[in-house]
Design goal:
The protein is globular. Helix content is 28%, strand content 35%. The chain has a single domain, classed as Aminopeptidase, CATH 3.40.630. The chain has a 7-stranded mixed sheet. By secondary structure, the chain is an alpha+beta fold.
Length: 176
């Protein structure tokens, strides 16, 4: 089934996700890898959830929640953003809560989102930016067949200075 396997499902954001999103979006340790510079209010997140019913072609983005099918727990998120229809590419962000890391959720979520993007949406390219110091994510994307196609030097500001970002790309396995 699309967006699900025996272990997990990728599903739409629901109102009951508000408290979990509030915790994740307001964790300053995670702001470095995203574009967040300040806390989000519950009101702002509630508005985001209410507006998340727009089609990916209209909003140019989509957030999916990673749900453990066995426990029903929400363990992370997948973000598709910067959707460029003309050039047939979309950026990918993948987050798994620290309590659930190392259990295969990121890899399964990545495989499910690839099926959605490449087979269902028929998009040519998924790409992501990963901090050079994030060796676990880098290894996973490399093992999953992503190509390393550049380094953005001093791309993100951290408390310790600036870090490099590695650009990873995966191209559709469907004929064009």
């Amino acid at each position: 089934m699309l967006l699900e396997n025996e272990k997990m499902r990728l599903r739409a954001v629901e109102p009951q996700d508000l408290d979990r999103l509030y915790i994740w979006e307001n964790n300053p340790a995670l702001w470095i890898v995203g574009n967040t510079r300040q806390p989000y209010s519950k009101y702002a997140l509630k508005q985001y959830i209410l507006q998340s019913d727009k089609d990916i072609y209209e909003s140019r983005q989509l957030r999916l929640m990673i749900e453990n099918k066995t426990s029903g727990e929400t363990v992370g998120t997948v973000d598709l953003f910067d959707f460029d229809i003309h050039h047939s590419r979309i950026a990918l962000g993948l987050f798994v809560d620290e309590a659930f890391q190392g259990k295969g959720f990121a890899k399964s979520a990545l495989q499910l989102v690839e099926e959605y993007v490449f087979i269902f949406l028929r998009i040519n390219q998924l790409y992501c930016h990963i901090a050079e110091k994030n060796t676990a994510s880098r290894r996973m994307f490399e093992k999953e067949g992503y190509e390393t196609n550049g380094i953005l030097k001093n791309w993100i500001k951290t408390p310790d200075g600036f870090d490099n970002i590695i650009v990873f790309q995966r191209f559709s396995y469907l004929p064009h």
